[in-house]
Write a structure and sequence with these properties.
Pfam families: VTT_dom (PF09335). The chain crosses the membrane at residues 38-58, 116-140. InterPro entries: DedA_domain, VTT_dom. By secondary structure, the protein is mainly α. It is 70% helix and 0% strand. It contains six helices and no strands. The protein is elongated. It has helices at 2-14, 22-31, 36-61, 74-87, 100-110, 115-139. Helix 1 packs antiparallel against helix 2. It starts with a helix and ends with a helix. The longest helix is centred in the middle third of the chain and has 26 residues, at 36-61.
Length: 142
């Protein structure tokens, strides 16, 4: 049970700016014989919740762009808006990407992407990434 909690918290942190890799822990736990479906669900939930936190922060921070205490300028919000409008909400399927994915989830909050749509797209992207890792690991002849 402790392993699942650790994976959940690591996946949650990995969706933030904290430089941690949930993939390494996931693969290590797979090697111990834990249930792959439970590991997939745990990692996906943790990583998706981390993205939800980014989205929520984005929704709150956009009202305060250019404040001294907010590290986001209205110019960067404008650039992100232009990029996000160009590629659309479907780019959230790439929220699993390191660094870029964190920014996507944050700016989708600034852009006020509907939460339900955000949640579905992010969960699909993050879940697919963990599924590919698990399937690949399971297919390796060890």
């Amino acid at each position: 049970m402790t392993e699942y909690l650790l994976l959940f918290l690591t996946a949650l942190a990995a969706a933030s700016v904290i430089p941690v890799s949930s993939e390494i822990l996931l693969l290590a736990l797979l090697g111990t014989g834990l249930n792959p479906m439970s590991l997939w669900l745990t990692a996906t939930l943790g990583n998706t919740l981390g993205a939800v936190i980014n989205w929520f922060i984005g929704t709150k921070i956009s009202d305060h762009a250019d404040s001294r205490w907010v590290p986001v300028s209205s110019a960067s919000v404008e650039r992100a808006s232009h990029w996000f409008n160009r590629y659309g909400v479907w780019s959230l399927l790439l929220s699993w990407l390191p660094v870029v994915g964190d920014a996507l989830t944050f700016f989708s909050g600034i852009m006020r992407v509907r939460f339900a749509l955000f949640l579905v797209l992010v969960a699909i992207g993050k879940g697919a990434r963990y599924a590919v890792l698990i399937i690949t690991f399971e297919a390796l002849p060890l």
